[in-house]
Amino acid sequence: MGHPIYHLDLRTELCHVQVRLNGVPVAELTATGEQPEWFAPPLNPYLVGAGNALEVVITPLKDGQPSDDFSALKVEGVVRRYEKGAPVGPGSGPLVYELTVMAALAERIKQAKDQDQKLAVPQSFVERFDNEATSFAAELTQGSPLGDEQALRDYAMRLRDLMRARDVPGLARECAGKVQAYAAAYQDDPARIAQSLEQVLRDEYLPRGMKTDFERDEVELMPVAEGRLWELRRPGGLPFIQTEPDGNGSKMQMPVVVGLHQGALGVVR
């Protein structure tokens, strides 16, 4: 049997849904019209083995705007397991876990009606499932939170200055923790992943130019996995690494999640 790859197969209607796995954002969908939205992100870099916590946060939408009416929305999802290299598609792959959100929501609606109350917006649900072969529990659920905001801002400036200097090898070296995590998550060659990352930065990001028009105090720090990791964002909640727009207005972007790697801050996701 090959290395297992886990995916969340998520389908939503008439709502905005955010999904976090063990405290790490893995999916966000907005379905405003008659057509459902579908997304099937891979989960391996955020798994902890036993008792994975999948948090689903739901905001109803009506005419595209937030609403307090939960009666029309739909959220359906399953976790599926694939063998490495197998095709991924809706409904394929062995079932690992099926979300119970709709049943739990129906019970909350009934209880609120019985008490002549309305449900608060948004509503949050936590589902739990186990996985095999891959665990980042030491990093995501067992480690101590990082509380030094000044060190995080200092590190953000280190990354920004590398982008300003167009130092692609230096920027890629800062991502060693991310490379190792993805190699372990997908049973892949870390040298190949590192080479691919540096090539993308050099051949696709560098020619477009990376946005660095922000200062230390403007960096937004977003806790991930209860503060064990932190996402760095540019002002306005924008991805930390983002290119200038091309002639068609399109941009390339790369979120940056920072944590401890070999005793020092580094990019880990």
Describe it.
- This protein has 269 residues and is an alpha+beta fold.
- The chain is 26% helix and 33% strand.
- It is built from 6 helices and 16 strands.
- It has helices at 101-114, 137-140, 149-164, 168-173, 176-186, 190-208, and strands at 4-13, 15-21, 24-31, 37-39, 52-62, 65-66, 74-83, 95-98, 123-129, 220-224, 229-234, 238-239, 241-242, 253-254, 256-261, 264-267.
- The strands form 4 sheets. Strands 2, 3, 5, 6 and 9 form a 5-stranded antiparallel β-sheet that branches. Strands 10, 11, 12, 15 and 16 form a 5-stranded antiparallel β-sheet that branches.
- Helix 5 (176-186) packs across helix 6 (190-208).
- The protein starts with a strand and ends with a strand.
Structural class: alpha+beta
Shape, per Cα inertia axes: globular
Number of domains: 2
Low confidence ranges? none
Average predicted confidence as pLDDT = 95
Distance between the termini: 27 Å
Biggest sheet statistics: 5 strands, antiparallel
What letter string, H or E per element, gives the SSE order? EEEEEEEEHEHHHHHEEEEEEE
Percent of residues in beta strands: 25-35%
Helix % is 25-40%
How large, in whole angstroms, is the Cα Rg?
A: 20 Å
Number of DSSP strand runs = 16
Count of alpha/pi helices: 6
What's the topology here?
Elements (H helix, E strand, L loop, with lengths): L3 E10 L1 E7 L2 E8 L5 E3 L12 E11 L2 E2 L7 E10 L11 E4 L2 H14 L8 E7 L7 H4 L8 H16 L3 H6 L2 H11 L3 H19 L11 E5 L4 E6 L3 E2 L1 E2 L10 E2 L1 E6 L2 E4 L2
Antiparallel strand pairs: 1-4, 1-7, 2-3, 2-5, 5-6, 5-9, 7-8, 10-11, 11-12, 11-15, 13-14, 15-16
